[in-house]
Each structure stands twice: as C-alpha cells, then as structure tokens.
Design goal:
Blueprint: H1 24-43, E1 54-59, H2 65-76, E2 80-85, H3 97-107, E3 110-114, H4 118-127, E4 132-136, H5 142-156, E5 163-167, H6 173-185, E6 188-192, H7 201-213, E7 218-221, H8 224-228, E8 233-236, H9 248-254, H10 262-265, E9 273-276, H11 288-291, H12 298-317
Parallel strand pairs: 1-2, 1-3, 3-4, 5-6, 5-8, 6-7, 8-9
Helix pairs in contact: 1-5, 1-12, 2-12, 3-4, 5-6, 5-12, 6-7
C-alpha cells in the first residue's frame, strides 16, 4: 500500500463526518496516505504540508487519543492545533452553532469536533467555510475506524475478503462506522448485540446495499458466537459509552454473554487479531487474557490514530 504523497483534488476542502460520505477510492486514498505518512514519520523525514495552518479542536467529550493524535499530527505536518473545551467558547453559553462556525472560519483552517449529537457536527459543517472533521459523535466514529482499517491492513496484508465481527452495542458509534467502513473496503462484518441494542436501521440498510455492490456482506445477529465464527478480526467496545454512565448497571445485565473472552475468540480463526478503540474495561466487555494476549493489537491500533488523522488533515487541508 504505497502511492505518491499527492493530495487527491476531490478531497480538498471536504468535511469528514461519516465514512459513508466517501467513495471506495477516496477511502482507499485516505488509507494509502496514512500508510505513507507513517513510513515517513518512522524514518524521521518531515512532511510539513500544513505549514502555517491551524486546526481548532472543540471537545465537548473528553479524550486521550483523539486530542493527542490530532494535536501531534498537526505539529508533525508543520501546523498547530488549538484546544477548545466547552468552557472555553461561547457555545457553552448559548451562542448559535452557525455563529461559532462562521467566526472560527475566519481564524483557523480546519475544525475538529468531538461531541454528543451528530446533528451538531452537521450544523458546524453547514455553516463553516473550512473543513469540519468529526472526532466522535454518539452515532459515528469515522476517524477511529479509518485507523482500525489501517491496522488490519498492516497485520493481514489485505482488507477485501476478510471477516470481522463487532461484539457489543450495535447502536454505538463504533458499530455504525465499522459497518460503513467494512462495506466500503469489501470486508465482511457481523455485528452482534443483545435485543434492544440493534444498529440504526438506516445506517445498516445503506451499509448492506454498499457491501453487496462491493462483493462482501455486512449484517446483524443476536448471537455473538455466530458473529465470531471464522472471524479474522474480533472487535469490541465499552458497553456504556460516554454519556451513558447512568445506564451502566442495566447494561452490565443486558450484555451478559457478550464478553469477548477466550471461549468466544476460540471460534475465530487461529490467527485472528483483536481490536478495541480504548479505553477498555477488563472483565466487562473483554477479558484481560484477550486484550493483553498475543492476538491483541490495540496499541498498534491506538498509534494508528495519529497516522490516520494526519492523512485526513493532509487530504482535506493541504493547499497545493
């Protein structure tokens, strides 16, 4: 996976809100750029394609990996990043989203937002004159899944033709973006969740249709065993996402039988890899023996957030 580090013109100035918004070739371009930028970084070769540019980073949900990877990524690309919590800007005091987006468009070159409602990111993108990147919402996490796809490629040498499974809350942001990402790259994906936690039906239907056109299959099941059978990649996430802490006890009961443990991974292929976007709760959604075991690549995955984010920034914000 290598190509000339030339920005694809169709991506310049675009927003990055969901993976569904990009063609198969465009997603492939993001991945190739991430792979190449990672090689340059490992060699210590600078690539200051965003020199003099600034990214505003709005955090209404806290983060370790998102903040550090975007901030370091901008620095490595020659630019700078500005951290803005909800306490630092007037959004927290009632200023309309449109006003904030228009003002920031006069000051910076791109906006990354990590928030709750996906509609807020869409509203920013509608009013801003610069690229807007979804760092996470309650329903989508496209930047993470781009890093996941890069990680799978590095460990498996391919994406198309593999089978992945996601065991956990099918309605969360990871499940939705994984459905969209797998469908785009030709990778089978089975999402397994208990009743009441099914994926958004519109997102699932669109992903199923796209997958069919790409010669793969994505779908949903209530059986984690069925999902894990013959999987090349096993993925999970916390059962109670940020903002759902009040439901934790209920979710612990509802998700009994959905822990990714050695019994479940024993149904996957012998050389399966395990992914988790972190932070993880050992003993809840995943057993310590799995996440800390030889099949786990979660720290490669976490590192690849940096390289995937740099690829997004370069593709959307590079001027030349």
């Amino acid at each position: 996976m290598t190509q000339n580090l030339k920005t694809v013109s169709s991506l310049k100035g675009r927003d990055f809100l969901t993976l569904a918004a990009f063609s198969n070739d465009e997603i492939d371009t993001f991945l190739k750029q991430a792979f190449d930028l990672k090689q340059l970084q490992k060699k210590g070769e600078p690539h200051a394609c965003l020199s003099g540019q600034t990214l505003a980073m709005i955090f209404e949900k806290s983060s370790t990996r998102t903040r550090v990877s975007f901030e370091v990524g901008m620095y490595q690309l020659g630019g700078s990043a500005l951290f803005l919590s909800s306490r630092d800007i007037q959004l927290g005091r009632g200023e309309p989203i449109a006003d904030t987006a228009k003002v920031l468009s006069r000051y910076v070159d791109g906006i990354m937002i990590r928030t709750f409602a996906h509609e807020k990111v869409e509203a920013f993108a509608e009013s801003a004159d610069i690229p807007v990147i979804n760092g996470l919402t309650d329903t989508h996490h496209p930047t993470q899944v781009l890093a996941d796809l890069l990680t799978v490629y590095e460990h498996k040498g391919q994406l198309k033709g593999l089978k992945a499974c996601f065991i956990g809350d099918g309605y969360n942001n990871m499940a939705h973006s994984l459905l969209e990402g797998a469908a785009a790259v030709g990778m089978d994906l089975a999402v397994a969740s208990p009743k009441g936690y099914e994926p958004d039906q519109d997102i699932l239907a669109a992903a199923e249709k796209r997958a069919e056109g790409n010669g793969c299959k994505v779908g949903f099941t209530y059986s984690p065993q069925e999902a894990a059978e013959g999987a090349d990649i096993v993925i999970t996430d916390v059962w109670a996402s940020m903002g759902e802490e009040a439901e934790k006890e209920k979710r612990l009961r509802d998700f009994q039988g959905f822990e990714v443990n050695e019994s479940l991974t024993g149904l996957a292929k012998e050389d399966y890899i395990f992914l988790h976007c972190l932070p993880a709760h050992r003993g809840e959604e995943v057993a310590a023996s799995v996440i800390d075991g030889p099949h786990s690549v979660v720290f490669d995955e976490a590192e690849n957030r940096l390289h995937a984010h740099k690829a997004i920034l370069k593709c959307l914000m590079e001027k030349n």
